[in-house]
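User: Hey, my collaborator sent me this sequence without any context and asked if I could get a structure. I don't really work with proteins. Can you help?
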Amino acid sequence: MTETTHGQVFILDALPCQKQTTTLITKSKNDYIIPLKRNPKKLFKAAVKISESQLPVSENQTVDISHGSPIVRKVSVFDIEPLKSADFDGSQWGEIRSLVKVETSGTSCKKDNEHLAYYIIPNLLIISNF
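Assistant: No problem. I've predicted the 3D structure and written it out in structure-token form, which is a compact way to encode the shape of the chain:
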């Protein structure tokens, strides 16, 4: 006998392989976080366009100095549901409703570093858990 899991957050990778998986996760009342990479290009380009063309519904910036050099992290959350973008079609990707943009900058080994990452999530509430 197996137990059903509810309210869990799965962190996945390799989005092109996960279309059926994301649908199963959301149908079982769980959530997921998937980092967007440059593939599929259409989805990644849509994420960049959204983050450049609309205001975030939430934004937070922190400074971490725990390793001696300050690291600045800015997290912006965008609501993509009202856009009804074909690139973020819920039936294809498993109910994507939000886009998270994480910008990190700082100095490490006397070099300036910047990193930009995008994540897709089905539910804004899971952001508050991290």
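In plain terms: The mean pLDDT is 78. You can pass these tokens on to your collaborator as they are.
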